[in-house]
Amino acid sequence: MMSRSLRPTELFAGSGEMATLMRATDWSKTKLGPVDGWPQSLRTVVGVLLGSRFPMMIWWGPNLLNLYNDAYRPILRDKHPSLGVPAAELWAEVWDFAGPLARGILDGGSSTWMEDVQLFIKSGAIAEETYFTFSYSPIPEDDGHVGGLLNTVQETTLKVRSERQIRMLHELAARAADAESEREAARIAIDVLSSNELDLPFVLLYSLGQEANEAHLVGATGLKDYEGPAKFVTASLDAQTGGWPLGDVVRSHRHVIVDDLAARFGQLPLGTWNARPERAIVLPLSRAGQRPYALLVAGLSPHRAYDERYERFFEATADQVANAISTAQAYESEKKRAESLAEIDRAKTAFFSNVSHEFRTPLTLILSPIEDALAQPEKSLQGESLAAVHRSALRLLRLVNSLLDFARIEAGRLQLSFVRTDLATLTTDLASSFRSLVERAKLKFLIDCPPMSEPVYVDPAQWEKIVLNLLSNAFKFTLRGEIAISVTSSDDWVCLTVRDTGSGIPASELPHVFERFHRVQGTKGRSFEGTGIGLSLVQELVKLHGGSVHVSSIEGEGTTFEVRLRTGGKHLPPERIVEAQWSQESTMVAPYLLEASQWIAGGSDAQDVLVEPIQEAAVPANVQAGSDKERASVLVADDNADMRDYLARLLAVRWNVQVATDGREALGKARDQPPDLVLSDVMMPVLDGVGLLKALRDHPRTSHIPVVLLSARAGEEAVLEGLQTGADDYLVKPFSARELVARVQTHLDLARLRREWAGELERANKELESFSYSVSHDLRAPLRAIDGFSKLLASEYGSELKGEAKEYLDRIRTATARMSSLIDDLLHLSRITRAHLECIPVNLAELARGVAGTLRAHEPSRAVDVSIAEPLEAQADPHLMKVLFENLLGNAWKFTSKRPDARIWVGKEQGPEQAFFVRDNGAGFDMKYADKLFAPFQRLHKASEFEGTGIGLATVHRVVTRHGGRIWATSAPGQGATFFFTLGGSRRDGPVRAIELGG
Predict the structure, then answer these.
(1) How far is residue 455 from each of residues 166, 418, 562, 571, 625, measured CA to CA in Å?
(2) pLDDT recorded at residue 824
């Protein structure tokens, strides 16, 4: 009890609103009762509460009646004033959370402390999302019992919201940097915004069309499984009723708040807190001073008032999304620009590459014969050399004229003169000039150009180029079947159609057929030559005639080109129409025919050509001829008939010459009858020179043949690239006859020396093998003595030996065993080399199963899964193949010993040649050591890890080599290894030459 009566003015001291309100309250009419009856502890805490600037509230008594200070008042929102109200009534919306905590304090529990707790407090018509950090502390009565609690609290709503929003905006900025397109930027933006449904219940992102009169939905979040009117996919911005006011936002460049969403769109889906958003904001996304290019529609949280802070957050979000999209647009634009520049660069590169090749071939055929003629006393050209020079000069002229035409078209300087022309007659005459050539190629040629009712205005010279280019193109790519050309008329149109049954054009290439310098790769044709401007020139010339050209094709079945022109002259520039007599004379056919005739010279099935020798003056004086039996053989591969014939004439003076029209024909001839040297052009149809080179190197029968490549590509880089492909030499066109002959002679001499060295090396190897066999055999006798006496010593005197002595004896025994194993392996290797090779049909699968069974018998405790494919058959020596599997399977068995799931596979793979393999999932090895695998005594692992002498793989290599095959391996550390081997070229009379790896 109080020692004296305390007046309210003394208890509720202070000038604050709450102190004034408490002084004015008649406490006798409240559940707290008169102030005189309050315990001293309560009066003391009240004094602390009113004197504090920190938000505090007292809950007192069984009903937790509340008292609070000025700092606490904003937390109550519109619940103020509420003095003496029970806490459960005052905080009814959060009492399911706060009540148990408070009761725990009253029941004697310890103080609490909680940070950033989310609570939904009623504020007006909404349940506001708020956050608080608070503590509950007990207030004792005068008798020591807990009479109430002190709630000290700090609202952290602004902090939590700000951190959440800043985190979202930061993530959006960081992730948007990865966007490489507008679509990807929109996807990233929506993905980031979807993580903040507390501030953004739903989001719709619309892009505007190029005309900015239509909006397209590009992303949405928060409206899952909703397909109502609020989430339209496409809408007109001119619509004035219903929907989002997108048009108003675009026109005003300002955001718009949309109220009463339920009335506008019907019920929207429930949000995160089981509440439906009722308001939304539509914001424009634009660059400064420009019309919006996108619109952001965002729902307003139903648990937050729309205030200045919320508005700034939406504006910041819109700016960030706009920046993301704008940056992506800039990147995409720059990427397209870079791709466009790269495409121009590729076209330029293709042009120079093609033109270089096209110019260098005829230049070689002009310069080389002229140089030959200048080296002769009479200094004259005659016969086939003169004809080849003339053909090459005409070809150069056509190439130059085509390039000039194209350049004039590009510059807008090609002026056409349109003449009334009998198009059917002109086209028939042009096509007829090809008849003899087409029929000589064993093709059917159809010409259907009936008389037309009226003339057509064309430039006759340019029409000739259109027709001749299309016919040449059809002839180049038609190896069998027919070529048909027709001219038809219908209404106000005439149509030229050139159809063939050739190789056709892949569907993916059709859109690029008329692009300048573009050439369809891999298409089977009569020649690889071409600049890539013929069809592009056709298209440009047709456009200048006011017409159009179209192509249709089915790969493997043929191609059809259609050129459509209008009749009459109204569609043409009046000043370019010439009322002159059309002349039927043509001067353009000859170059086209001469070039096309070279594509079939000799035919694809022609016999090997041995042409008449050229004059001695063309050959270096130090090159000596021999008899036909002594003469080396040279295989010439070139798709250009003139170049092929010239090279054959040039080389036939000193060597036996075979010719081939492409790489595939050359490869077949080289494998049937290997020449001493291959001279090949790089650019050829079917199989080019580089492909031919690789195929020759990959086959044991032709791997050793020197290859000289000819190319139109000049420069150090081109030469290095050619040599890096594995060629022995690389000549750039044009070249002199003397240089070519000298280089061929040099490589033939080097090849002969290599054969001689190989013979000497083989003899030396045999002598070394005989020596190693003898030495190994002789070493066995003293080694047996060492082994026997060491065993006897261990048996008879082992118990008397001390620690070190016994250790030394064990080392002797171990070294003796290893030496014995090594000698056995060496003898095994020597026997394989010396043994007679008996090649018969062998079941390799059965041999592998037998070896695997032996390995299991030696280690019955190991569970190794060995999978052997069926069938595995080959022509081989069965004894040597057993040795091969003993080593390869033993190797795999050993290197999988540390795996509980050890697996070994034996099988074969089909490719250019059949390859067998033994694969495991063991220790593996680094491929940088692959070239050491098959040399004797090479080990890639320590003896303490895996035992071995380093002879096993050398033995396998020797077995494969004796069968005329090759062996190689692929692996990675810890991922197992695969050993492949072939058995091609086996013969009963001994080993054949093969590619050898390692030693």
Answers:
(1) 77, 11, 19, 15, 66
(2) 60
pLDDT of residue 945: 54
For residue 755, the surrounding DSSP H or E stretch is: helix 737-797
**What are the structure tokens assigned to 521, written together?**
């790769």
Q: 878-895 vs 844-858: helix axis angle to the nearest 10?
A: 50
Give the residue carrying structure tokens 């036909």: 628
Say which CATH number the domain at 842 has. Answer: 3.30.565.10
The pLDDT, as a whole number, for residue 236 is 77
Query: What is the DSSP track for 664-699?
Result: HHHHHHHHHS--SEEEEESS-SSS-HHHHHHHHHHS
Range of the domain at 465: 396-584
640 exposure class (CB count in 10 Å sphere: 0-12, 13-18, 19+): buried
* Lowest-pLDDT choice from 415-419, 526-530, 641-645, 788-792: 526-530
* Alpha carbon distance 380, 369 (integer Å): 10
pLDDT band, very low/low/confident/very high, at 616 (cuts 50, 70, 90): very low
Calculate the CA 164 to chain-centre distance: 39
Instruction: Please say whether the beta carbons of 783 and 819 come within 8 A.
Output: yes
Name the amino acid, one letter, at 484: A
Q: How confident is the model at residue 549, as a pLDDT?
A: 92
Give the pLDDT band of residue 830 (cuts 50, 70, 90). low
The residue among 990, 994, 895, 989 whose CA lies nearest residue 940 is: 895
What are the strands, taking DSSP E only, across 95-213? 112-123, 126-140, 146-155, 203-208
C-alpha distances (whole Å) from 721 to each of 519, 705, 834 are 22, 20, 42
DSSP secondary structure code for residue 583 in this structure = P
Half-sphere exposure of 228 (CA within 13 A, CB side): 15
Domain assignment of residue 390, yes or no? no
Residues 173, 145 share a domain: no
- Same-domain status, 258 and 136: no
Are 369 and 385 in contact by the 8 Å Cβ rule? The answer is: yes
Nearest CA to 150 out of 69, 77, 76 is that of 69
Q: In angstroms, how far is the first alpha carbon of the chain from the final one?
A: 111
Per-residue pLDDT at 658: 94
Residue 92 clears pLDDT 50, i.e. is over it: yes
Do residues 636 and 648 touch, judged by C-beta distance below 8 A? yes
Residues 267 and 316 in one domain: yes
Q: Which pTM value belongs to this model?
A: 0.43
Q: What's the Rg (C-alpha) of the chain?
A: 47
Considering 715, 735, 755, which residue would you say is the last residue of a domain? Answer: 735
Of 400, 405, 529, the closest CA to residue 475 belongs to 529
What pLDDT score does 523 carry?
67
Give the span between the Cα atoms of 634 and 648, in whole angstroms.
9
| Contact indicator for 438, 600 with CB cutoff of 8 Å | no
Of 584, 604, 633, the one marking the end of a domain is 584
User: Is 703 inside any structural domain?
Assistant: yes
Is the CA virtual torsion 324, 330, 333, 339 positive or negative?
negative
Same-domain check for residues 418 and 565: yes
Please report which confidence band the pLDDT of residue 607 belongs to, taking 50, 70 and 90 as the band edges: very low
- The residues that bridge with 220 in the sheet, in sequence order, are 204
Residues 130, 167 within the same domain:
no
| Tally of structural domains, the chain | 5
| CA separation for the pair 295, 213 (Å, rounded) | 12
Q: What is the CATH number of the domain that holds 204?
A: 3.30.450.40
Buried b (16+ CB within 10 A) or exposed e, 344-383: eeeeeebbebbbbbbbbbbbbbbbbbeebbebeeeeebee
Query: Is-contact 730 689, C-beta < 8 A?
Result: no
**One domain, residues 142 and 56:** yes
Q: 326 with 275, same domain?
A: yes
| Bridge pairing between strands 707-711 and 729-732 | parallel
